[in-house]
Design brief:
By secondary structure, the protein is α/β, with parallel strands linked by helices. It is built from six helices and seven strands, in the order αββαββααβαββα.
Length: 144
């Protein structure tokens, strides 16, 4: 494994993230999230030419609070983020942290080419980056 600031996203991602179909209901998504104690699901592509989606617990909360329909009548595709924010598995972790911070992104799908490799959360990769000896992004890692 690479050390310190040269860590790659692929080394720190959660491989094989849980996926859900866009036609599933928010109740189904919540059930999976509750059962697995997670806060995000990757929404499957409909075809090779489609993009992945991302469903966060906050998307579900917004969908439920915005309408007058129960979660059992709202489908994932109505509230998901699509295209999902994404980073490449070979991206240096410090750049992924910077990207996610700069754009206010809490979760990203991780791709190898166009195939799903995993998922990362800003919380997890920030902790792992600092635990691995990475320095604050303002000190020499800005790349500006």
């Amino acid at each position: 494994m690479t050390k310190g600031p040269d860590l790659r996203v692929g080394e720190m991602m959660t491989a094989d993230p849980l996926t859900i179909d866009g036609m599933a209901t928010l109740n189904e998504a919540l059930s999976i999230m509750r059962e697995r104690n997670i806060s995000s699901l990757v929404v499957k592509r409909r075809s090779a030419d489609d993009e992945y989606g991302l469903l966060l617990i906050s998307d579900i909360a917004n969908g439920i609070s915005a309408g007058n329909r129960p979660a059992s009548r709202i489908q994932v595709y109505e509230v998901m983020q699509k295209p999902a924010p994404a980073v490449d598995a070979e991206m240096k972790l410090r750049y992924a942290v910077r990207y996610m911070t700069r754009f206010g992104i809490s979760h990203c799908v991780v791709l190898r080419g166009r195939e799903l490799a995993g998922i990362v959360s800003l919380r997890d990769i920030t902790i792992r980056f600092l635990d691995a000896g990475g320095q604050a992004l303002e000190n020499g890692a800005s790349g500006r």
